[in-house]
Amino acid sequence: MTVRHLALLPRGTVRALAAEDAVAVVPIGAVEQHGDHLPLGTDFLVVEAVLDRALEQLDDDDTTWVRLPTMTFGHSPHHLFTAAVSLRPSTLSDVLADVLSSLSQTGFRRIVIVNGHGGNDELVRLAVKAHALHTEGTAAACSYWTLSAETTADAAAAERPERTPGHAGWFETSLMLAAHPELVADDRPFQPSDPPPLFDRSPAPGLTVERYGEWPRVGGLTDDPAEATAATGRLLLGRRVAGLVAALRGLDQATTSAPGDRLPSTDRERGPHA
Amino acid sequence: MTVRHLALLPRGTVRALAAEDAVAVVPIGAVEQHGDHLPLGTDFLVVEAVLDRALEQLDDDDTTWVRLPTMTFGHSPHHLFTAAVSLRPSTLSDVLADVLSSLSQTGFRRIVIVNGHGGNDELVRLAVKAHALHTEGTAAACSYWTLSAETTADAAAAERPERTPGHAGWFETSLMLAAHPELVADDRPFQPSDPPPLFDRSPAPGLTVERYGEWPRVGGLTDDPAEATAATGRLLLGRRVAGLVAALRGLDQATTSAPGDRLPSTDRERGPHA
Amino acid sequence: MTVRHLALLPRGTVRALAAEDAVAVVPIGAVEQHGDHLPLGTDFLVVEAVLDRALEQLDDDDTTWVRLPTMTFGHSPHHLFTAAVSLRPSTLSDVLADVLSSLSQTGFRRIVIVNGHGGNDELVRLAVKAHALHTEGTAAACSYWTLSAETTADAAAAERPERTPGHAGWFETSLMLAAHPELVADDRPFQPSDPPPLFDRSPAPGLTVERYGEWPRVGGLTDDPAEATAATGRLLLGRRVAGLVAALRGLDQATTSAPGDRLPSTDRERGPHA
Amino acid sequence: MTVRHLALLPRGTVRALAAEDAVAVVPIGAVEQHGDHLPLGTDFLVVEAVLDRALEQLDDDDTTWVRLPTMTFGHSPHHLFTAAVSLRPSTLSDVLADVLSSLSQTGFRRIVIVNGHGGNDELVRLAVKAHALHTEGTAAACSYWTLSAETTADAAAAERPERTPGHAGWFETSLMLAAHPELVADDRPFQPSDPPPLFDRSPAPGLTVERYGEWPRVGGLTDDPAEATAATGRLLLGRRVAGLVAALRGLDQATTSAPGDRLPSTDRERGPHA
Amino acid sequence: MTVRHLALLPRGTVRALAAEDAVAVVPIGAVEQHGDHLPLGTDFLVVEAVLDRALEQLDDDDTTWVRLPTMTFGHSPHHLFTAAVSLRPSTLSDVLADVLSSLSQTGFRRIVIVNGHGGNDELVRLAVKAHALHTEGTAAACSYWTLSAETTADAAAAERPERTPGHAGWFETSLMLAAHPELVADDRPFQPSDPPPLFDRSPAPGLTVERYGEWPRVGGLTDDPAEATAATGRLLLGRRVAGLVAALRGLDQATTSAPGDRLPSTDRERGPHA
Amino acid sequence: MTVRHLALLPRGTVRALAAEDAVAVVPIGAVEQHGDHLPLGTDFLVVEAVLDRALEQLDDDDTTWVRLPTMTFGHSPHHLFTAAVSLRPSTLSDVLADVLSSLSQTGFRRIVIVNGHGGNDELVRLAVKAHALHTEGTAAACSYWTLSAETTADAAAAERPERTPGHAGWFETSLMLAAHPELVADDRPFQPSDPPPLFDRSPAPGLTVERYGEWPRVGGLTDDPAEATAATGRLLLGRRVAGLVAALRGLDQATTSAPGDRLPSTDRERGPHA
After folding, report:
1. Span between the terminal Cα atoms of chain B, in Å
2. Which of D14, D85, D96, D131 to mutate to test the interface with E (most CBs of E within 10 A)?
């Protein structure tokens, strides 16, 4: 078996796997309001759904993936106006630094954070950058919704990038209907805001705009969850799973100890290095 | 049903329960080496075993208990010499402060932390003290192994206070054999240290003694797990569950909104207030 | 005149402008190695070139833009292996929080950070999010290279997204040849790395990958600056200036006190709100 | 003479003593309200009384004890509602870390903190744990009221564990009548609270319960000081002095350089190592 | 009596004095090497000598001075190469902020820090500035050696400003011979350094110059203590006591509640307000 | 040429200069209200005027001076009542530590901070002390107004030490009239406060006194700017330039690698080393 749960293994096994270049996988989500129809745990439930399906598909390759327990709490101060369990940015940065440092001390030289919550995105990327400055090995991070790969034409056609991921709307509700239908309320009223939330509809691409009181003003949702369906959710989920599988395989190949095996790099993804 | 999982509920339900004086319950454990026979997650697995059994017994009373997802990572720097995922003391303090603050902002007026790891003990107690200084309501904390109540004469007779909790020895191994036997290795070799670990066998009651390098010197265990049995584990577990039930009921009654119903206080427990 | 320099104005004028809903504009760059052909100040010099050209174009509208002195130092720890003046992430976060808070206390209700350095990107976005949680008004942030608008067909055709922004390569060298040709060395040798830098060529879109020692390994450049020309630089610069003008106008219109004037929102830009 | 005051010695003597394995002794108390009959300095005055008597009894053995000036300020935020000089938990943690680090840099390999205030208890224990993780030698900590040893049958009979230490009640008032009678007011009115303070009378053993506003509600005292007498105080003091003498001797013997001399360990005291 | 010791008073008296506009006086020193002839506690012993003599002289006026226990530890990292108990700058800043905040919460509206150690000078001045920004009342700070007033012509003639205060040399040794002769060693060898210590002999007035390793290089003393005498020490001490008396009287009069009584200000002292 | 601008140089040149023992020069000012007649940037504009004139005069010697971009923001919380961009003390300390550390990592062994704002004075001195404790080389700091040297008898005669530097009064206004007359308003009304500001007119030399609300009470100026003239400003500026030239030359000679060349030390300047 190539997928293992770190917390269920004794120390000797963990250190042996790390010494054999296993990849430690750290899922992180959030606990925060997702409207009246989705549970507070939506973000960690979805990232677990994506990750665990991806790890199943990776179970037949030569690499061992050591999955950590999900970090359920994330950075959600903008949802405390109703209901959330939120870490401050500095707290979450410290947690991530400690987790990465612990894994390195335990012997891991390859670590990837798989994120399920928008409010964590900058922080997980900063965390791996800071870690790799001073620690041997490779640290990586991604947010599941930015990853998608070819699955079927239907799946590609189902995408609505302008509503992805949004918050508690079409995208997330579809995913939850696919992954945890029993936790989704049937009744999903939505009152569109006018103007729509600035944080979600920026007046210009690339411009982050944050206005005081915007989340309460729009009621905590970005778009209408009414059109969400389980069938759509399965298509969307499939593409993210495929995307994560590709990302994890790519990471594995790019950082394996035998550098000759590396995949050709792609020009599609460029970090901000100005 | 009176036991609910916070992460599986939508925001409206959570706020309504908080407004009805439900008690938020925050389990915390650790991920750290427990010898070659127990998994890294032992501390959170055991505290979950104790807590979930206790909540089942509380399921028939009038109070609603809102259980949070378990905080799996704790303060375990002394185990990083082999394998652990450890938060620094300042990090864990910040996490606990943020969680308590979030729960208060979400409306909870009664919160209790149930701890499964010795290295967290001081920090969870400090956290509830700091929180209650400036926030309305009541915050409480306990470590499961200090709680025990009358169950059966057999259970009481099974206790070996000098090995409780210890680390990865008789007590914890017994509990794991009762709660998660599939995760316990059959082979449990133990080499007693001479002298025994100072942190575990203080030269005087009440004196904390920490010597550099002591955990590696003794191999990471405090006492021999060989005598541990599932039967003993069930007795020990039963007493902690009963103790936690009593503690949670006591907390509930002492802090319920109708103060006339309070139980007589006991002289058995006194905090340090010199 | 509608563009003013905060540091050159007396207090009364500053407070009056803030009261009239002027927008405070905070440029930030970096001081870090840019190969042997570009100066350490490249990032702040370029963001100043973009911003000051954009402000000239905005000089005829009804809104007053109050430009702050450029924050020259940014978050550049990955360049300390040769030469940089770098702030730690926590330091820069504190600086940004203090600047935003100061501007709010001075009366500004609209603030935008214009960033010229990739290493600052996450931090400036986090800063405006944190600020707007607790402070009246709107705070915005952007990185200049992500902004581009229609200028000419030639300009659009000149783009090479796979080398934008990169570090000290085609894109930045072109911009510096357009803005500060006297600071660019004629001799620009480049030795491609094999494999190319992981941080720049991720094995998967959306995956941040950081490997220890990668910047020194590749010599501090991402791509060959040899093909850079002043003519290309002028085209690229023109598109970023136009993009920033559009972004600033969009911000102005979306947050002006008379909400009826707001531009229709666009679906093109969505923040991460999963 | 084997008891020395660090602050009264020149540097050469201090370093020579440290090199000869002297034990540095760090007393810490608090400055906080103790009702209308005891002075604010009660906690440091009592711990000094216990410690200096203990050091007198240790003056004839082979070990040198190097006493530091008393740290008079402790962690007393719960007393700021009337009168206190209190350090925040993070401040006191930093102070303790700095003091321990300084002593190690000055050459000491054995350090013990002797605490006189309940609010410091967790913090001094955390401090020695953190210090010993990374620094050669041994660091220890105790709170004087938890230490008691056989003195006379009368002394043992005088104990009232349910009122020890309490705050400004029977126990502390008795000790002050023995150690500093001139600082104790004759008039000691007490109004029992109903219900008694939750922090002092927990509904369950081992459960820390903190309720907002509890200290002001009960007037800052835990129990009636009226029955306190100087004679009782002398008995109580004698037992704590004997307990501290035993603890310090035990520490000395357990950590002396010649390990063959170590005392048999005791099973009576076990730290929390779950 | 108008001089009172805060730690020896019960809460009611402390709050009453604060309400009557008493001035809280906070002495702070250091514990650090002072050569082979002076004890580590020299700085706090001297500041106590100055302060307590000054308070005796103030004992007949209408103002009550409430003296706190001396803060013995200061900021002395430059002396850890031999022997010191030093707080980091951030730790000492936090301690001072906590002490000032506690005194304000306890009711004091006038507080003065009297400092005996050069390494604390900037930090105590920063502390009172920060405190007074947000807290009603007045906070003041001084270092005893900068204060001197007319005493006798002999005393004035005895001054050697170029050796004041220095470290463990003529000035401090003279003061200790006057205040604590039993703690001063007869043998006081001194080896002048060439060049003399840069931190003590700056190449230009007003320029602080710090060179790595300078304190160990010069052996921890700034100038020859051989010429120090008790008679000189008494003269020097007398002038500082007189200076502190004048400073405290000046502070009292400038901040007393009846503003009409204020002394004319002097042009002699100007803070840096560029 | 011996004066170079760090931000305009490529990495190779910077490292080569550092290796040749060039001195890095870090100017710092502030952005804060200076009455209704001077711009917010007065402090950084003046320190730049002093520094750049001084560097011109140093342009003919053997030492290379590498000037950094000016740090425009300083520690100005006392001016936020009207208009300022202020860093908290801890933020500025972190910035200074990062800048010093970066310069050392980039190869500089000699660094000097030249300060133009009173509120930064303690912090820049603390920063160089902290840096030099653990880093090879020399770090120095000064505030320009404390430096003056012989220029002409007229210049010396023009000094009014009791108004130097003050805030936005005679001294600063004169300097701005000399350096940036176009930024000084003709109309300069002043209403003297009674009593004058305590922070500026201490009741005793050497005593820092800070009273809540004092800056707003006196309107943000310390003394009347009416008498300021450009001619006086030129004289004052000339003396500060000469003083800074002397200080930089002195620093250079005292810390050059050939120690035999050192200037005789002076007794005029003594740091506080009690």
Report:
1. 43
2. D85
Distance CA C29, CA C27 (A): 7
Decide: residue E260, CB within 10 A, 0-12 exposed, 13-18 middle, 19+ buried.
Answer: exposed
Q: How far is B90 from chain D (nearest CA, A)?
A: 8
Exposed e or buried b per residue across D121-145, where buried means at least 16 C-beta atoms within 10 angstroms of its C-beta: bbbbbbbbbbbbbebebbbbbbbbb
Number of domains in chain A: 1
- Write down how long chain C is: 274
Residue D267 is predicted with a pLDDT of 41
pLDDT the model gives residue F219 = 96
Q: Is the pLDDT of residue A265 over 90?
A: no
| Cβ of residue B35 closer than 8 Å to a chain A Cβ | yes
Contact list in B for residue D214 (CB cut-off 8 A) is: 132
Burial class (CB in 10 A: 0-12, 13-18, 19+), C52: middle
How far apart, in whole angstroms, are the C-alpha atoms of residue D65 and residue E80? 21
- Best CA proximity match to D6, nearest among D50, D69, D51, D52: D69
Which of C11, C71, C73 is facing F40, going by the closest CB pair?
A: C11
The answer to whether residue A269 sits within a structural domain is no
Select the residue from D115, D207, D211 to test the B interface by mutation, using most B Cβ atoms within 10 A.
D207
B residues 133-162 lying closer than 8 A (beta carbon) to A: none
pTM: 0.95
Residue B7 DSSP label: G
Measure A7 CA to nearest chain C CA, in Å.
25
Angstrom distance (rounded) from CA A114 to CA A134: 22
The answer to whether the beta carbons of residues B29 and B44 sit under 8 Å apart is yes
A187: Cβ contacts below 8 Å, ≥ 6 apart: A36, A37
Q: Is residue B153 part of a domain?
A: yes
Please identify every stretch of chain D with a pLDDT value under 50, giving residue numbers as ranges: 1, 259-272
Query: Would you say E31 and D69 are in contact if contact means Cβ atoms under 8 Å apart?
Result: yes
Chains linked to A by 3 or more Cβ pairs within 8 Å: B, C
* Residue B182 maps to a domain: yes
Length of chain A: 274
Whole-Å CA distances, F72 to A158, C68, F32, F84, F164: 52, 10, 10, 11, 21
Q: Answer yes or no: are the C-beta atoms of B84 and A106 closer than 8 Å.
A: yes
Burial of D15 (0-12, 13-18, 19+ CB in 10 A): middle
Structural domain harbouring D212: 3-259
Interface test with B, best of A8, A78, A102 (most B CBs within 10 A): A102
In angstroms, the CA D60 to CA E128 distance is 47
- Lowest mean pLDDT, pick from A147-156, B117-126, C218-227, E161-170: A147-156
3-state helix, strand, coil in chain C (%, to 5): 45, 15, 40
Confidence of residue E258 (pLDDT cuts 50, 70, 90): low
Residue range E117-141, pLDDT digits in tens: 999 999 999 999 999 999 999 999 9
Structure tokens at C100: 């935003």
Tell me, what's the pLDDT at B263?
A: 41
Give the CATH number of the domain where residue D145 resides: 3.40.50.10310
Stretch 75-94 of chain F: residues touching chain C, C-beta under 8 Å: 80, 82-88, 90-91, 94
Query: What is the residue-wise DSSP string for B65-94?
Result: EEEPPPB--B--GGGTTTSEEB--HHHHHH
Q: Alpha-carbon distance E243 to E257, whole Å? A: 23
Using CA atoms, how far apart are residues E177 and E229, in angstroms rounded to an integer? 6
pLDDT tens digits for range C93-127:
999 999 999 999 999 999 999 999 999 999 999 99
Phi, psi at residue D137, to the nearest 5°?
105, -165
Residue E269 lies in a domain: no
Tokens for D161, please give them. Answer: 């564990």
